[in-house]
Specification:
The protein is mostly helical and 200 residues long. It contains nine helices and no strands. It has one domain.
């Protein structure tokens, strides 16, 4: 019975790796280390496990109910994927050029673990839009695995954020952002071209 269920699954390491890289680039937890450290100073303490689990739960739930929400407002997944491609494109430009196109609200030190860390810093509009956009290209089980791996990485980064900043420095963080920005830009173009044909 277990082997039959496993055979019906469409696990693919290439898909998992691709989705992981996309989400990792969009969430940009390494690039957000200065914000995370600032939140720690304001709040006094951040529960890394709780923040990672809540963010992961939000992303997985949205993966399953996102389409229902779209159907409710009369939008198909290909239109959403094209919109998501534009968002990824602008996020990539921010990362590559070091500019700010989207201004976050002022962070509150109140319950910083949930807000704004888990949502919207980690599981924010960019990552949620990306998840639904990716659903039109990849199998759901591969997206779930990629989300779980991202949650583990997020937990490790949150737990060791101060050490990471000391180790790679601000220049290292900036270089990392630019590298993932280029990758994200290429993925945004691919996502746009593969979905726009369904709308024309």
């Amino acid at each position: 019975m277990t082997s039959q269920i496993y055979e019906n699954m469409n696990f693919n390491l290439k898909e998992i790796f691709t989705v992981f890289m996309v989400l990792f680039a969009v969430i940009d937890v390494v690039g957000n280390i200065p914000i995370i450290i600032d939140l720690r100073k304001k709040a006094g303490h951040i529960q890394s496990e709780k923040a990672a689990i809540i963010a992961g739960a939000i992303m997985i739930v949205f993966l399953f109910i996102g389409n229902s929400i779209l159907n409710l407002v009369g939008i198909d997944v290909h239109s959403f994927a094209v919109a998501g491609a534009f968002i990824l494109f602008f996020i990539a430009l921010e990362m590559i050029l070091g500019i700010t196109l989207y201004k976050q609200d002022e962070e509150s030190s109140l319950n910083a673990t949930v807000f704004p860390l888990a949502f919207p810093l980690i599981a924010g509009p960019g990552s949620l839009t990306t998840i639904l956009s990716l659903k039109s290209e990849f199998y759901t089980e591969n997206i779930i695995v990629a989300i779980v791996i991202n949650v583990l990485v997020i937990f490790l980064v949150l737990k060791t954020s101060v050490k990471i900043e000391r180790m790679i420095g601000q220049n290292g963080i900036n270089i990392t952002r630019k590298i993932f920005g280029v990758i994200l830009l290429a993925i945004a173009v691919k996502l746009f071209t593969s979905n726009i044909k369904f709308l024309l």
